[in-house]
Amino acid sequence: MMPHIHYGASESFWVSGALTLATLIYLRGWLRLHKHEHGKIEGWRAGSFLFGLLLIWIATASTLAALDHEMLTAHMVQHLLLMTIAPPLILFGIPRKPLVSVLAHPALCWLAAAGTLVVWHIPTVFMLGMRSQIWHGVEQASFLATGLLFWWPVIQPLPKSLKWPESSILLYLFLATLPCDILSGFLVFCDRVVYPVFLSSPRSFGLSTLEDQQFAGALMWTCVTIVYLIAGALFTIRLLSPHRSYGRTEDRLEELAIPQFVPPSIPVQQPDRHSIGAV
């Protein structure tokens, strides 16, 4: 049985310091933009960004970070916070005039998120992250990074950053549930422990190792489905908004407008005054 690592106070300290620094930098930039824009930048964006950072701290530097080496459910909560919940909150918090412009293709965003989810749940790769603190940090960073990529086409923090038709985002969200459904369904209905590393962990909350695995799969299944349904509903409402449709129709009409035909000017010959006088 391979021993797994234990989360230490030093890792929590460095993660907390990095997130605190990110918070201060963001607040400084947001206050500057807020001042220059005369209050036009919504305050809820700052709250959304900071709450997203708080969720990252909970996933990586709180007691949950230690429990993820004892329970697969805690490990799954970490992944959900880093990949599904915190990224959209952070993207909502990006001001309309960000310092850095990042454009990502939706296909790349989808493949990166799905690939990260599948690869890190392969038992061999999963064990690598459990045995090495460095690889565990890489795992968490990859979940957060691909989570931000995945939600970028959905949130669209920058105007006109989406290269695909907006209606395709509904299909994008639906297809994203498939890898999660397959993985979570496998964890729920499998009759054996997929990750033996948890067999040596102390029992928490009265759950056996197999029950912990089934609960983790059910949690992933439920959380991802609810979050994606909410995102799809909000996106549909925004897509069908009369005000939005009116504006987009105007833009399209302006783009498709045919220039008006202006007939060429015909010079008009002025009558000779001397001729008129003679008549």
Low-pLDDT segments, ≥5 res:
1-5, 245-262, 275-279
What's the total number of strands? 0
Strand content: under 5%
Largest sheet: none
Secondary structure category:
mainly alpha
Helix content: 55-70%
Gross morphology is globular
Concise account of the structure shown:
The protein is mainly alpha-helical and 279 residues long.
Describe the overall structure.
The structure is a single chain. The protein has helices at 9-36, 43-61, 63-67, 72-92, 106-119, 123-131, 133-155, 168-189, 209-239, 242-256, 273-278. It has one domain (9-95, 112-251). It is globular and about 55 Å long. Helix content is 69%, strand content 0%. The chain has 11 helices and no strands. The N and C termini lie far apart (122 Å). By secondary structure, it is mostly helical.
List the helices and strands and how they pair.
Blueprint: H1 9-36, H2 43-61, H3 63-67, H4 72-92, H5 106-119, H6 123-131, H7 133-155, H8 168-189, H9 209-239, H10 242-256, H11 273-278
Helix pairs in contact: 1-2, 2-4, 4-7, 4-9, 5-7, 5-8, 6-7, 8-9
